[in-house]
Amino acid sequence: MTSQTKPASPVLEIIEAELPAGTVLHLWLKARAAGGEAKLFVTVNRKDIADPSTRRAEEFEFLAVTLATGGRTVLAYDADTTVLSVVYAFHPQRVLDEGICVLHHDTRTAPPEVPESYHFRPPFGWMNDPNGFGRFKGRGHLFYQHYPHGLRWNTMHWGHAVSEDLIRWTHLPLFLFPADHLSEKDDGRGGAFSGSAIPVSGLEGDEIRVFYTEHVRDRDPEEQIQLSAVSRDGIVAGSSEVVLPLRPEGMNLTTDFRDPYVFKGPDGRWKMLLGSRDRSGGVVLLYETADRQGAADWTFLGIIHREDRFGMTAAECPCMVPLGGKADDPATRWALIFGLLTSRDPATGRRNLTSVTVGRFDGRTFKAEFEQELDFGSDAYAFQAFVDGDEPVGIAWLANWTDFSKKDDFPTAMTLPRRVLLEGDAVLTPPVAAAESLRDTLLDETALVAGETVSLGNGAVEIVLSLSAPGAAFDLAFDHPDAKLGVRLDGDGLAIVFDADTGKAPPRYLASGAKPAELRIFLDAGSIEVFADNGRWTGTKRIPGFSAARSATLTGAAASAKIWQLKL
Ligand code: FRU
User: Fold this and answer.
1) Which of 42, 238, 423, 499 would be a feasible disulfide site paired with 50, CB 3.0-4.6 Å?
2) Residue whose CA lies nearest to ligand 1 atom number 6
């Protein structure tokens, strides 16, 4: 038998980095045991700089340290008393170009090791909806629902990243933090829920104003209220103010009152959409303000849209963009997009569908003309779009709450960004043009079309298929280690074949009656996206795990087939 004696002096865990003067460290600590204290010792060139500490033991506490001088920086802590979740470093003047440098994340927050993957993922922790998607001072910004300390949904923060082309992203410091009283425990009682961002002019030029829902479970009288904050530098959010403390009265709305989406209406005023529910189903609420800063005077105009199909409860994450014309042109039609929470399509078994309704919008009322499903794979949830230059571009969470389990880690990605176009009586959502810049090498243009089985290299590929005629049947089967996976076109329509063999029959991911002639199929670790006829039928499916498809075999009537190896 061996006996263990505790060493007299603690064994310190050490993190070292060479960091310049002015570096800011963001870190999260908690005590290993209740009643104990967590402490981190920060030295630069062997000089003590700071020793942030906390007595919190239930949830990590956020702490920031600024390095006045640069040099060899050492972070040391006693792992017997202290748990460190994440540490990243950044230089405020350069972070928009350089991004953050993650110095530490514990195993529970680590991102998957998928270096070939080309979809956006957080640098650590959990992610769901895209928020505040927009372009500010020429840079694309993506905020997202985030929990830094695990790979399961919990108290919501906003993560943040920037990009020129919306494909290659640079991670920034966390942007919104939950209220202090929500941060004390990891019981997922709420936080900074989904929202949007607009450019407003400030003293030093364009600033970013964000709107979001603060959710506090069981708060009376409102679980969900709307807050707003301004960022002058595009990196740090100023303090949040309440802009809508109460739901509209006398409408019999449930406590659902969330996901403020603010956009410029045809009359030049800021409009805000919110998702909710009343006794007859999901509703989209419209507010407006004449305040050019969007800071105050938000007035309720009414319910602009109702939806109660498929057993849905609340409308979530509404978003509205002008299609193919300027917002102030009365001829322009608008797309209203939102999630149908808890919906289930009885024909296919798919859940939490997303619908896009096209109609006329005069700033106060929305006259629907036709409706269509946004994504037949239904793993493009919480879609959010903004007008990028003269065309709307959107992105979605590449997952669906149906598959989510509180008991298992559930790493996710964002979809490829997509254009939103109107063609006749159809909305098209093809990938943005910059997605073509991912094409690295042409793996094949003869073997797949000849019916041979073709290796997909590292599995990060785009397959471009031209069919011999619109609707010509084909079956493209992938060899994937974890799931039956493929794309099939037949008399029923276009389908993503997906069965992870869980013992339960999977839904049918089917665009009923689709008869496309051209397809672009994107495969990556953890996902498949199908864009048929320039996104007339778009289907997105998350694949659990991170294995890549190994090979593809095509049967049926293709005129040509190309396989591109993709690379960020
Ligand atoms: C949609 C959603 C939003 C909410 C957010 C919370 O996926 O439920 O309605 O704001 O997620 O993370």
Assistant:
1) 42
2) 193
